[in-house]
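User: Predict the full complex structure for these chains.
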Amino acid sequence: MRAQQPVEMILLRQVASYLTIPIWMMDSDGNLVFYNEPAETLLGIQFDEVGPVHADQLGEMFRITRVNGEPMGEMEFPVLRTLAKRVPDHGEVRYCGMDGVWRDVAVSAIPVEGQGDRFMGVFATFWEIDV
Amino acid sequence: MRVKLWGTRGSIAVSGPDTIRYGGDTSAVELRCTGDRLLILDGGSGIRALDVGADTRRVDILLSHLHMDHVQGLPFFAPLLDPDVEVHVWGPASTTRTLRQRIARYLSPPLFPVRVRDLANVMFHDVTTGEFEIAGIRVTADLIAHPGATLGYRLSENSSTLAYMPDHEPSMGLPDLPSRPEWTSGYALAEGVDVLIHDAQYNDDEYASRVGWGHSSTSHLAAFADMTAPRKLVTFHHDPAHTDDDLDTLHEVLASKLKREMELEPGTPGLVVDV
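Assistant: Here is the predicted structure of the two-chain assembly.
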């Protein structure tokens, strides 16, 4: 982990902590660095219990699939596509939260781009859907 | 490095018998380094009186941001109008405009009669973040929490380090200071420096009604300094409403809040600090 996040990420985290929509933030190295309280409800675990984790571990933690239950390739997950391609992305996934509950969610991911062509990470929101 | 403060007031220049000791001019700091090369931090009204010396042929000015109290003195700084002196101005671009274009909004009618294009000896350099070198000084720039694109600087020469954050609200992104360094604006710039020049604009009561204005409260400054552990803390950007007596009190309170041992020096015009 880096010694200090860019100020854009610091301020986004602050905004996210005030929002009532679930927000998930990943840094440019692929570390999940924050999610807010509404996201904690959907993921079934507080962020402070998880701590920063790398994208490689997310599949193991949340068992992510397509909404029809079929296995999902890593690059089908909108957050990881945005991380790789630095463009906004959207999609629907099914996952099992740390509380053992399977949920279907829509995910919208936005790249965090700053001055000087700096890519700092991904800011994503997700919400439950009926499939 | 030797630092001399020429302007320490924030927001707007003030004058009068109540602001003699802490000064009335806005941000300007002289930095002399090996070989007597001159760097200047910010171009507030304090830069007007800064004497660069008759033999100086190059001046570098690092702007933290473009709020008026940090650039208002630029067109009154003699070297800008001296064709024999090369002036390099470094500072933040916006997301759509270069530094030169942004400065031109001030240096053009109707706000000012002289245009940027008339200053043939002045060169502008966009800075976002990262490291570069000026006159043997290693400059690290990073965006810090203050409205609009605002840079803090860490300047290093040999083993000496100075951090300059004249306008900084570390609690803007982190209400529960002190907290984790990873999520603290400005931490990496200020960590372990010899001298930290930092925003000290508000007392705690004032801050309560000025959240988000981009400045520090006394408690936030104490917490930030305790986290970053400078050898010396120099207060800066004094509120224009604060009298000398008010600022004496603010510094007494600040000293009482610091938990870590460090030198505390009130920023006053003419103060010289060897880094």
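The first strand of chain B starts at residue 2 and ends at 7.
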